Amino acid sequence: MPPSPDVVTPVPEPVPEWALRYDAAEFPRQAVTGDAVALALAWSGGACALQALVVERGQEPYAGLDAWPGGFLDWEEDRDARETAVRELREETGAAAPAYVEALGSYSRVGRDPRQYAGTRDAKTGEWVARGARVTTVAYLMLMREPAAPGERGTGDDAAEARWTDVYAYLPWEDVREEGGQGTARALAGEMERWAAGDGGRRERVGHAFGFGLSEWNEERTADRLALLMEAGRVPEARRDVWGRSSAAADDAPGREMAFDHREILADALGRLRGKIKYMPAALVALTGEELTLDELQAACEAIAGRRLHRPNFRRAVAPPSGGAQPRTPRLVVGTGRHRPRQGGKPGAAPEIYRFREDAVQARLETSLRLPWLPL
Question: What is the rounded distance in angstroms from the CA atom of residue 197 to the CA atom of residue 80?
């Protein structure tokens, strides 16, 4: 099949001598995939939840487990892994690529995809004939305005079902907004401290990752916390053989297992997003829209960070005062003078609608927001 006209594959003459000699078959087999890590905020009666668009694996390996929409790079059609991730998002969920897409990272750890070890035994010699390839994936963070209903999907059988799921179903210890979540995080912190006892290096890592008993909790250290749980064998992903089969899982294993290393990718994405809301307004706008009330902005930040904010101090941090002298540092949002009717005829003044400052939306804030978190 000739290459797509959209893909530049020139073969100018004369062909260099090295190109005539080169043979990729002489090197270990490699494959590249693209994964779409799509996140959105879901609203219900003023409450806000951070959700992820996942697919249920329809075939082995990891049949029945949730995974990111993704697949192998098409050598003839895809310009790069980003185009692969966007295509797979559309084919496996029916969702179009959002306006906000950024590279999250590449993942190439040996054995991350069990298909690396695929092969067969020679019927005559009994020797193992390897037929797999080591798989590297490039993940892309995609932020959507709202969890759109999955649309018409392709005919591939990799994904059995597409759905939106609460991010904290996979990382429950990361949501410390309520006492229940704080209890989960404290219990895991205590368990990790006991696991690290006698090893000074581990104890220090556990202390920093879990905020020394949550007293110094850093919401951005999501990857560090999951890495420690993996190292301690606390999650099913840490107990898999080369074929991706987990040993007997503990009944109290925290959070829902994901296929491949996709829970690690989620932890990276959540940590990235939690940092970005403090200095990159475009990330917040992609999730909330350009206009919202201050209570809605606070709820969005809390859902993303998994932490509660001090309401009066938050308002002072993001919006200019209603009267008097203006602050030296421009605030993130400004009032529109318009108000939103209260839902269900609830008593009280209608909240004012604010909009993000136009000069800040596409810029990196010179001074990151110092969000006033409530103590845990």
Answer: 46
Look up residue 114 and give its two tokens: 């069990």
- DSSP H or E run through 352: strand 352-356
Residue 199's Cβ-count burial label (10 Å; 0-12, 13-18, 19+) is exposed
Write down the residue that tokens 């993000």 correspond to. Answer: 356
Do 157 and 239 form a contact (C-beta atoms < 8 A)? Answer: no
* Residue appearing with tokens 């994936």: 137
- Here the tokens at position 110 are 């040996």
In the numeric block, the tokens 């067969």 are attached to 120
Q: Which two tokens stand for residue 306?
A: 């998994």
Q: What is the mean pLDDT of the chain?
A: 90
Element (H, E) at 359: helix 358-361
The CA distance from 237 to 227, in Å, is 11
In 129-199, which ranges are continuous DSSP H helix? Answer: 179-196
Give the range with max mean pLDDT: 62-66, 245-249, 328-332. Answer: 62-66
Give strand pairing partners of 161.
56
25 pLDDT tier (thresholds 50, 70, 90):
confident
Tell me if the pTM is above 0.85: yes
Complete edge-to-edge strand list for the sheet that includes strand 291-292: 291-292, 352-356, 333-339
